[in-house]
Design a protein that fits this description.
Elements lengths: L9 E8 L2 E10 L5 E8 L2 E2 L5 E2 L3 E8 L2 E12 L4 E4 L1
Antiparallel strand pairs: 1-2, 2-3, 3-6, 4-5, 6-7, 7-8
Length: about 90
């Protein structure tokens, strides 16, 4: 699901519970050497360790020299239909 946003990436954190993966991150090189882009999937719920979300969603976070400088939600799972909706 995250691979639709990036072709060449490095797998970052992947956290699971008894229901499967609840957090997955991939990183992509930015346009400059200091820039990285992180795509993140998180499943709805409170997973502990400050990993909680009111929605199942995919977001993007931009980093410059390791510091977050922006980001946004890309899509949210409609739990009733099972379809991903772009934000």
């Amino acid at each position: 699901m995250l691979s639709q946003y990036a072709e060449r990436y490095t797998l970052g954190r992947e956290l699971t519970d008894d229901k499967g993966v609840y957090l997955r991150e991939i990183e992509v090189e930015g346009e400059t050497i200091a820039e990285t882009i992180e795509y993140q999937y998180i499943r709805r719920g409170d997973h502990g360790n400050q990993n909680a979300s009111a929605k199942t969603m995919i977001s993007v976070i931009y980093y410059d020299d390791g510091k977050p400088v922006g980001g946004r939600v890309l899509s949210v799972l409609d739990e009733e239909t099972g379809e991903w909706k772009e934000e």
